[in-house]
Design a protein that fits this description.
By secondary structure, this protein is of the alpha+beta class. The chain contains four helices and eight strands. The strands form two sheets. A six-stranded antiparallel beta sheet has the order 2-5-6-1-7-8, covered by helices on one side. Strands 3-4 form a two-stranded antiparallel sheet. Strand 3 and strand 4 form a beta hairpin. The longest helix has 21 residues. The chain is globular and about 50 Å long.
């Protein structure tokens, strides 16, 4: 079973190049630049989907939500299993039985009562578009800055969209080695937490 990253882990400066090179190495040895990029994009998408399906990938995110999450989250954790559906040309996804299965586990990290917000960690078990945003919106909680999914707060006190992927763990398809990459909170999100 794979180990999870922690928020205390710092950014690996080589993580981006390593992960790109890993996927790039799956591309046959090659043609022209245009063909190479097209094949790379296809392989990247297909490979990500495949390792999700094989449960060899773990992706953890942190989000700052409106409101104080209370007793509804027993043991500080909640599992959300609701299908996500794209309704026509509408960019906003919805919970609907016609959609694809999606599972998110959200866990409270810290409550900031003076700011009336809650920092949560979200683990994805499926990879649907807007999955975290849709599932949290279902709980009537909105990510700070996410106007598409219900945020209507004061933009004068935030700078950005407070959802951040901080940990990626997967098994190398050839060596079977566990690869782990982490990224620190972006400055605007960290500044918001640190400011009284």
């Amino acid at each position: 079973e794979m180990e999870f990253c922690t928020l205390a882990q710092s950014l690996n400066p080589w993580s981006l190049s390593i992960s790109k090179n890993l996927l790039y190495s799956l591309t046959p040895l090659f043609l022209g630049l245009g063909h190479r990029l097209a094949i790379f994009r296809k392989l990247t998408f297909n490979y990500r989907r495949e390792i999700f399906l094989r449960k060899n990938l773990q992706l953890q995110n942190v989000a700052m939500l409106t409101g104080i999450m209370g007793k509804v989250w027993q043991k500080e954790e909640i599992t959300i299993e609701k299908p996500i559906y794209k309704d026509g040309e509408n960019i906003q996804k919805v919970i609907d039985e016609r959609g694809q299965y999606a599972k998110t586990v959200a866990k409270v990290i810290e409550r900031f009562h003076e700011k009336n917000v809650t920092l949560v960690e979200c683990e994805l078990f499926t990879g649907r578009t807007h999955q975290i945003r849709v599932h949290l919106n279902r709980l009537n909680r909105h990510i700070l800055g996410d106007i598409l999914y219900g945020f209507k707060g004061d933009f004068s006190i935030i700078n950005g969209f407070f959802l951040h992927g901080f940990c990626l763990v997967f098994t190398h398809p050839r060596t079977k080695e566990k690869m782990s990459f982490t990224a620190k909170l972006p400055k605007d999100m960290q500044d918001f937490i640190d400011t009284n």
